[in-house]
Amino acid sequence: MIQAAHIVENANPDVIDINYGCPVAKVACRMAGAGLLQDVPKMVELTAAVVKSTSKPVTVKTRLGWDDNTINIVEVAERLQDIGIQALTIHARTRKQMYKGEADWSWIAKVKENPRMTIPIFGNGDVDSPEKALEYRNRYGVDGIMIGRAAIGYPWVFREIKHYFATGELMAPPTTEERVEAARQHLRHSIEWKGEKLGVVEMRRHYTNYFKGFHSIKPYRSRLVEEYSPSVLYSILDEIMEVYGELELT
Ligand SMILES: Cc1cc2nc3c(=O)[nH]c(=O)nc-3n(C[C@H](O)[C@H](O)[C@H](O)COP(=O)(O)O)c2cc1C
Question: Which of 15, 22, 34, 166 lies most in the core, judged by the most C-beta atoms within 10 Å?
Fold first, then answer.
């Protein structure tokens, strides 16, 4: 962990966020990610070592506990604060829940209500709209909200929430052009990052989200997920723009 902290320091990040939330078996069952929730002394020791080894603020993201019978987030939050983390994000599920069932934010409220806690607490789990963001912020008293799945293929969720918090009004959804442009940019970055073949293939799972609400998009989507050539893919995106540009989205 100390070595990893030194490697990421080279990128000059604003913070180093340690992920003790990952539930997948190959991580969590090897005493990494959410696995550390089963050994709090080890989690504390690892985190303390990272805090001591870097001048960057260290933050943590974790879950409520390993399973329903071992929810320990109130203790974990206190102990991590005591060894110097600067903020904590809580995904309000247990490791056992993976991504299923409803996130139970009442545990996040318990952490916030603990008079010993002073660091910012960010809530995470199931927030997918401006209304829900406001409701959860007010009901559970968090200092911030993290959003995962609702942002996949819909990065506008952040500006929509900010706008709603600032004005109390729902802003207009993104235009067709913004959506198509975002898909195009994502494809371009995916290819730059992963190489042509993998970049094209990994992008396939995202088209459905980018084009949610585009009626009769299915034939275009089929072509997008079967095609390997980037130039053909870009031209299909051009076609979508031409066809849907003037239409009202639902
Ligand atoms: C496909 C996928 C990949 C994820 N990868 C990470 C990750 O690398 N690091 C992390 O902290 N959380 C990761 N998460 C968890 C999310 O950040 C978030 O905690 C979780 O999805 C609950 O929030 P949500 O209901 O807003 O999605 C991932 C979630 C999904 C669905």
Answer: 34
